[in-house]
């Protein structure tokens, strides 16, 4: 078996396969191991890269066809939910400080901002992110039970702290599902599984790190995403910016500060779960 975690994780198993059983419940009825985060889905599924893990509805069955059996599985996973990156946490905090400095009358739906204190950290996996990874390990044990019950996963992780911790939490969930598997007598002598951690330092051929792909980093299309973001921000942000600035006299939020305020929604919601 084989699991790789990168600022993205991967995972491989070999043997035969049974249909996935019904999965256990997660920490809230709307947050389950089987289906991920379905709480307030009309909002939380539209947070882009800040949405918690959720399974996407599909009419395409993910059951293994009857005439097939699985001999190998590989999972490539990103780390679980984290605090904002160091640079983002700085600009989010600065935006909140700016609002507090310049606005002296918080009313209506914005009244809560008067007492809102910025408390988010930087870069680290959150407790919620740890739980996402534990759920993932649990889910994958059950999905690949016929392989997983007698094999130990091979886990690779990129070296960043939140990624290594995600890998550890993934193995925790996998291990606890294995212990709960009555068929195999609740044993797992190989736990804690060894995790191959690959450094992200320059010069290391770490295939879990996008930094190795120089065309992606510096090639002619390397600015394609940020260019598109800027173009789109200039289209969709101004009405939102105008609405916030009208409701918060004195705030005078810029386009990027308006995006910061929007980003704060998912980052402030996750830790509560
Ligand atoms: C599944 O198929 C039905 C009937 O064609 C369609 O109405 C529905 O939107 C589809 N759901 C998804 C998630 O594609
Ligand atoms: C705060 O705003 C409300 C609603 O716009 C207004 O009625 C009130 O007079 C304002 N208070 C101060 C101290 O400016
Ligand atoms: C936010 O910025 C203020 C003012 O610079 C600082 O005192 C505070 O420690 C910062 N809070 C966090 C959580 O970084
Ligand atoms: C996630 O893994 C880290 C590192 O092993 C551990 O300290 C932490 O307690 C784990 N989280 C949970 C919720 O068990
Ligand atoms: C990384 O890969 C390149 C190209 O194959 C090779 O020249 C180099 O020696 C490798 N570096 C390390 C540290 O293994
Ligand atoms: C609002 O901010 C912009 C820069 O983003 C600045 O040019 C402008 O003077 C500010 N307006 C007020 C009323 O402070």
Second CATH tier, the architecture: 3-Layer(aba) Sandwich
Query: What is the CATH fold-level name?
Result: Rossmann fold
> Biggest β-sheet: count, sense, barrel?
4 strands, parallel
Number of helices: 8
Which word captures the global form?
Answer: globular
Strand order of the largest sheet: 5-1-6-7
The beta-strand count equals 7
Report Rg.
Answer: 22 Å
SS-based class: alpha/beta
Poorly predicted runs are: 7-26
Compute the separation of the termini in Å. 31 Å
Summarize the structure.
With 273 residues, this protein is of the alpha/beta class. The chain is built from eight helices and seven strands; from the N terminus they run ββββαβαααβαβααα.
Jot down its keywords.
single chain, globular, four-stranded parallel beta sheet, Rossmann fold, alpha/beta, 273 residues, two-stranded antiparallel ribbon
Write the layout of secondary structure elements.
Blueprint (H helix, E strand, L loop, with lengths): L1 E4 L4 E2 L19 E2 L3 E2 L3 H4 L29 E4 L8 H17 L24 H17 L1 H4 L6 E4 L2 H19 L15 E4 L15 H5 L5 H24 L7 H15 L4
Helix pairs in contact: 2-8, 3-5
The site of one 2-acetamido-2-deoxy-beta-D-glucopyranose has 6 residues, from helix 3 and helix 5.
């Amino acid at each position: 078996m084989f699991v790789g975690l990168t600022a993205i994780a991967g995972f491989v198993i070999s043997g035969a396969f049974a249909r996935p059983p019904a999965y256990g419940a997660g920490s809230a009825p709307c947050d389950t191991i089987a289906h991920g985060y379905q709480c307030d889905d009309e909002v939380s599924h539209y947070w882009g890269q800040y949405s918690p893990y959720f399974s996407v509805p599909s009419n395409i069955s993910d059951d293994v066809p009857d005439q097939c059996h699985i001999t190998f599985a590989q999972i490539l996973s990103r780390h679980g939910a984290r605090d904002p990156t160091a640079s983002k946490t700085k600009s989010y905090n600065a935006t909140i400080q700016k609002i507090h400095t310049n606005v002296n009358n918080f009313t209506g739906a914005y009244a809560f901002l008067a007492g809102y204190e910025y408390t988010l950290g930087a870069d680290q996996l959150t407790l919620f992110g740890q739980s996402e990874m534990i759920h993932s390990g649990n889910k994958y044990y059950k999905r690949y039970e016929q392989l997983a019950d007698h094999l130990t996963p091979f886990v690779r992780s990129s070296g960043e702290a939140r990624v290594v911790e995600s890998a550890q939490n993934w193995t925790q969930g996998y291990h606890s599902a294995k212990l709960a598997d009555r068929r195999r007598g609740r044993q797992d002598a190989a736990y804690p599984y060894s995790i191959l951690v690959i450094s992200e330092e320059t010069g290391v051929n770490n295939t879990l790190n996008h930094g190795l792909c120089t065309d992606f980093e510096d090639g002619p299309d390397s600015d394609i995403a940020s260019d598109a973001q800027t173009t789109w921000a200039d289209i969709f942000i101004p009405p939102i910016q105008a609405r916030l600035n009208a409701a918060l006299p004195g705030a005078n939020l810029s386009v990027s500060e308006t995006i910061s305020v929007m980003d704060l929604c998912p980052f402030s919601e996750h830790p509560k779960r």
